Amino acid sequence: MNKSLEVMTTNNICGYFVLRKPIYNFDLQGREFFRKEPPCIGCICYSGISRMPWFDLDDEDYYYSGTLPHEVIELRNEIDEQYRDFSDIELLRDLDKTKRILAFSNRHQDRNEICVAFSETLAKQKGTFISDSTIQWLGVDVFFSGYGSILEQGIFAKPDLFPEFIIRLNMNGLFDLGSDFVNSYIDKYIEVSEAHNLEPIADVIATVDRVAVGRLLPQRGKA
After folding, report:
1. pTM for the full model?
2. To 10 degrees, what angle do helices 70-82 and 95-105 make?
3. Phi-psi domain of 85 (left: phi exceeds 0; alpha: psi -120 through 50; beta: other)
4. How far apart are CA 82 and CA 148, in angstroms?
5. Which of 167, 163, 104, 130 is nearest to 11 (CA)?
């Protein structure tokens, strides 16, 4: 599929972000179109890049009320001003800062984790670097800029439309690195999207990106 995804073994990434853990990937208030329960098919839960990124940093009770600590506000502004581009994927290159955001996001409950991302498109837009951390690579997500993951909004929203692809998902609800099924899934999504009220992507297929997603594992003896 994408030969560049083979670099995953070298920990070559485009950046870090804080995502909700798969079982906490929901918002009971349904804010910002997030689900009120985690997107799962049986025991397989979606573990891709559209897991409410930076959500607990942006909690309106703190962010919009002006009660966020000054340091946290500066970190949020850094994400907005320096790391946002046409990819619609906000990443940080600084792991220490990402860890501070994680600590703040988990101040009440351990619901978030640090993840990493890599794709050819992100590499061109954001550059890459080698992470010294231990990374568990979860698989490949399919991301539509301006909309989100068409795995999360496709197969996890209406699994009956994609029976042949459910068995192709790995235990993380993604496609395996190097999977041959990504292109055929995109074709299937385009085929059924109009008739089943899914976000149309046929005219903007160039903006659909295959993003490898990993989870940062804590170093032994460290948090």
Report:
1. 0.88
2. 120
3. beta
4. 21
5. 130
pLDDT tens, position by position, 46-70: 999 999 999 988 765 555 556 677 7
- For 128-173, the pLDDT digits (tens) are 999 999 999 999 999 988 789 999 999 999 999 999 999 999 999 9
Six token digits for residue 182: 């990504």
User: Would you say 137 and 217 are in contact if contact means Cβ atoms under 8 Å apart?
Assistant: no
- How many angstroms separate the CA atoms of 55 and 169, rounded? 26
Is 214 in a helix, a strand, or coil? Answer: strand
Answer yes or no: are the C-beta atoms of 198 and 154 closer than 8 Å. yes
> Nearest 10 degrees: CA dihedral of 130, 132, 136, 137?
0
The single residue listed with the structure tokens 């950046």 is 15
CA dihedral 123, 125, 130, 133 (to 10 degrees): -100
Within its chain, how far is the Cα of 146 from the centroid? 13
Note whether 34 and 148 are within 8 A (CB): no
Rounded Cα distance, 94 and 30, in Å: 31
Half-sphere exposure of 78 (CA within 13 A, CB side): 14
Span between the terminal Cα atoms of the chain, in Å: 36
Place of tokens 């903007």: 204
